[in-house]
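[INFO] parsing input record for site-specific DNA-methyltransferase (adenine-specific)
[DEBUG] input buffer:
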Amino acid sequence: MDITTQKRNAKQFIKNWQNRGHEKQDSQSFWLQLLRDVLGVEEPEQFIKFEKKVQLSHESFIDGYIDQTHVMIEQKGSNKDLDKPIRQSSGELLTPFQQAQRYANNLPYSERPRWIVTCNFIEFRVYDMEHPNSEPVRIELKDLEKNYYQLEFLVDKSNEHLEKEKQVSLSAGELVGKIYDELLKQYKDPNNEHSQKSINQLCVRIVFCLYAEDAGIFGKRNMFHDYLEQFDVRQMRQALIKLFKVLDTKEKDRDPYLADDDPKLAEFPYVNGGMFSDEDIEIPSFTDELRSLLLSKASDEFDWSEISPTIFGAVFESTLNPETRRQGGMHYTSVENIHKVIDPLFLNDLKNELNEIKKTKQLATLKKKARKFQEKLANLTFFDPACGSGNFLTETYLQLRKLENEAIKLIYPNPSLDVGQAKDIIKVSIQQFYGIEINDFAVSVAKTALWIAESQMLEETKDIFYADWDFLPLKTYTHIHEGNALTMDWNKVIPNYACHYIMGNPPFIGYKLQDVQQKQDLQNLNIKAKSIDYVTGWYYKACYFMKDTEIKSAFVSTNSICQGEQVSEIWEPLVKKFDLTILFAYKTFIWNSEAKDKANVHVIIIGFQLNNSNQPKILLSGGLIKKVDHINEYLIPYKDIFVSPSRKTIISGVSPMIYGSEPREGNFLIMSNNEAKNIASKYSELKPYIRDYVSAKDYISNKFRKCLWLVNASPKVLRSNNWIIDRLDSVKKYREKSKQKTAHAMASQPYLFASIRQPNTNYLLFPIHSSAARRYIPIGYVDKNIIASNACFTVPDASLFTFGILTSNIHMAWTKVVAGRIKSDFRYSNTLVYNTFPWPMPTDQQKARIEKTAQAILDARALYPDSSLADLYDPLTMPKELLKAHQDNDRAVMEAYGLPIKGTTESDAVAYLFKMYEKLAR
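[DEBUG] output buffer:
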């Protein structure tokens, strides 16, 4: 369904359902019409299930469920407020979302929804369950004509053909891995650099031959198999050497008697393209097992023509040593994730442009527009400066050729009469695609993947014209360059004035994992920031390259660059120096791969351009799309702002937050409870010095340990106990061996923690690390005699008002944006999050209310003395009393900030806090 039709149908849908909406009578027809008329589902009755059973304490029914996209729908009548709790048959009061959550929690894991949609015929609320604590996307019925695309996640199911290609490609990768392993065993010196490069190149050649014989590139099927089958194990090596030489020799330059000596070898065409030009590669002897693997498993029993070059390139590269892969920071990419980059960067616009052309009624005008569109496609250039196995470039080439084939059908309405030569009809070429890759094997794989893609798309164009064009010899050459992208001059790969789009998935390497060369690479780019991820180098390099051009770029990046201190360190110079503008951004999600050893990392995608502040920006999360005026470097819809760490709180009078005490003692001062009990029993004189000890994990799980706290301990007591003397000697040796100078300095006082910051009053404990799955970070009051480790922060003598503010949704909103992360989990900071947090200025009445709601949270926890904070704050098991207490506290805190209780989203709250911060930080 084209865009114009969707908009027209959405407008009619709004008209049909204005001032209507009875929960029982209208729900099914409402959803069936939406799916059919607006979202283009041909048989919506087969697509959505109504009244799906779910077993609670009694049998209940889910209003709507879509299996293929894992969507649960909770429908209410137009007279119901989606924010207000509704009394259930059990007597509980639940909002529509909470009701749907309860249903979801009682479904089998395989059926639990990715999306929950609540609706009252007036408004849709969309909850992404991969981010259960994020605010829902709200879509009002009256705005559906312009926002219908935000509901496309309902029907965006994976393509069956793509799924088949994926499975074939994964199987092909397994075969390559087996061939690689068996070949490696036959090398005399497999660790030799020449042998390593040879086996990589040999695998590339074998894969090309396997694909070429199945895809008909060699002229007929099974040519590679039939040629090799003539030879026994001892002859296989020489047979391959002869074949590779023939494939690199033009027919006119070959031995004129070759057909007499070996007719099957003589039938092979000339390949060109440099794939077989290196005659110096080392090819080992074969074994019976290797011969059988190649001829039976890889050739006879497998059809290589159906692989996806995009996926297979990544899987093929996974035959590399895993350690090499880790050092290079490579994370392999699914087709779905590639489209998260290329769709908003350029592909959506190209598809929309073609759809508009197709509406042209007059044939001559239609052909003229289609030809102009084809020329546009043929003149676009794409550059991936960290291209790996070339999957971004390959998928982009495939998509451009598919669009070109659509245009060709419009240009040549009578294909059998219009047939010419491929070079006259096909304009898009792999010569439009440029890449840089540091690994030589990946360079070979990328070139091969592009050649395979070119072959497959030629077949699709041939089908349009019923033509018989030859693919070989290779007529186009790939611009994939081997080298370090951060030290190379990109203009020597492609001049910046000739480049349209930069894209890719540069390596993610945290500062601590970077080697000396990688750290030097960043310094050479004049990056002042420290402790930043290696991916940052590509942003700086791209900005230098993009200056004074209209190039648009998009990179997949580790999410750390838009979190914590890295935001101001990385982005502030880019914004000020280059006027960088974020065009679109994909918020944190898990980046899955198609590689054999899957690499799952938490990433973001950022599309950007220099000197572009006018066009609407797009913020994406899961399958949801939001158009906004501006996206800042925290990936929220607000103007550019950079929160920097502060040693003092920006609000005077706020209690300081300090680190807990750091042991740094090699576990000689820390003990388990059982060990401490035995020591206290055996040495009663040590009992006063054994204290409870708590880290963040200990506190949340309610599994405290013990420590030796020897502050002010009598030297006489210590010297008289051999057990403790041995312990202190071990601490001393541990600190002396440490590479850290501060540890060396403390070696002279082994009886003390390396740093002592223990409050002398009861204190509020704040875990530094906490799961993002929780709605609130579990904080609480702790006795002054319990020693807090440096995995916690403490707020000594904190008031109930302080507790209420810090455990509120407003403080959580600030934390989610400003704090650093480990994957998606919070890494709280006193200097960056707490000290910069804008506190409210409440009235006495508002403050008293917050103190009351804060105490109610503590009281609700006390109802479950056998439960840890991990139990209490698990979203699936959070008690209703505790949830209600938190919700009451949230409302009280919002009131203190002057924020409306109803209608204020998390983004609204963050924007409000940023405004406060700007004023306070001046």
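[INFO] Residues 321-331 have pLDDT under 50 and may be disordered.
[INFO] shutting down worker
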